Amino acid sequence: MTIAAEASGIRLGMRANLAQFTLLVAVNALVGGMLGQERIVLPLLARDDFHLTAYTAALTYIVAFGATKAITNFFAGTLSDRYGRKPVLVAGWLVALPVPALLIFGPAWGWIVLANVLLGVNQGLTWSTTVIMKIDLVGPERRGLAMGFNEASGYVALAATAMATGAIAAHWGLRPGPFLLGAAYAALALGLSTLAVRETRGHARAEAARHPAPKNPDHHGELTTGQVARITSFRDKALSATSQAGMVNNLNDALAWGIFPLLFAAHGLSVAAIGVLAALYPAVWGFGQLFTGWWSDRIGRKHLITAGMLIQAAAIALVAIGSSFPVWATALVLLGVGTALVYPTLLAAIGDVAHPAWRARSVGVYRLWRDGGFAVGALLAGAIADAYGLTTAIWTVAALTAASGLIVAVRMYETHPQT
């Protein structure tokens, strides 16, 4: 349904803003593609070209990426409230331009880590902003569906790029071919963001003007950034439960990114086969969100998040048990299903609870916690793998993921207004 705003003439709703919404879906696909260029190639590059034998050292690029992206997420929300969404989006793509060149020509591992610092800034600014802009455009009634489209576009593109780079690497080597895709993505996205994307902050203001007074007095419209951080991280049960679930979700994604390819290679799988496995998980995750975001608008957020975290835990345990391509393929499909249930639903829950006046900052705080999971996961999995082996690291993350699902079941209240 389209919601008429005040005298400004701004209208909220997916149908009323279909052209801009579709454009932002395309831009976010390019954001996901920038990440997808690394998913298969960098773990193998660390092992084969830079001869890093310690898992913790090999995963430093994920630590750098995750920590930088997490911090940038926080500032992206604040900056987009202060200066507008579009300038933040364009700045994110400017930062992305050197990344492919650093990955192609970097003569030492430190250059690869630097590329991932810049990639973290790019991802934090661009992905956060496309999330915020879609929430601005659609209003409250189709928030889950909007987040489903947003996250699906990013992760389907990530999967397709991962598979493409795996095929390129198998035929032409780990460098430079796979990273030429990233160079094309960055140039195209910068052009679209500069020339075609329009500012959406006015839509958030229009929604805020007609937004009902929040039931919780702590959630009134005029909050400092510190207050927003405390409410999102700790004080509100739903917001804090979603924040910890987001963090654990990306903790296990760091495992899938950095550890799974090394496990598969240790069992003798080819680069092409590893590419297929690495693409299965984000492909199912991406396409699944087209359904799960819409589903959360129908049945609510809490139960989908709980179920998704528990399914992820079971899938990760199956990876630890398995030793063959068919078993791992099954596990990664399940991991994609579990993540699809969780990912857009967590964002929709933040949008449900946060007032439009401070929603962008709340999204930034949530994404600070969520993408901090990359750094925590890489450090934790790397340290445990160095000390006790790859399988023990995988079992540890499976247990943490199950615990996170139980926390959601106990602590979170249902946030969807019609459930």
UniProtKB/TrEMBL annotation:
Transmembrane regions listed in the UniProt entry: 12-35, 55-76, 88-105, 111-133, 154-173, 179-197, 303-321, 327-347, 394-413
Gene3D superfamilies reported in the protein's UniProt record: MFS general substrate transporter like domains
Record's keyword terms, sorted: Cell membrane, Membrane, Transmembrane, Transmembrane helix, Transport
Membrane topology note: Multi-pass membrane protein
Origin: domain of life: Bacteria
Predominant localisation class: membrane
Stretches of the chain forming a coiled coil according to its record: none
Region: Disordered, residue numbers: 203-222
Subcellular location: Cell membrane
GO molecular function (one): transmembrane transporter activity
A GO cellular component entry from the record: plasma membrane
Cited Pfam families: MFS_1
Major facilitator superfamily (MFS) profile domain segment(s): 12-416
InterPro entries assigned: MFS (IPR011701), MFS_dom (IPR020846), MFS_trans_sf (IPR036259), MFS_Transporters (IPR050171), Sugar_transporter_CS (IPR005829)
Protein name: MFS transporter
Organism, scientific name: Streptomyces spiralis
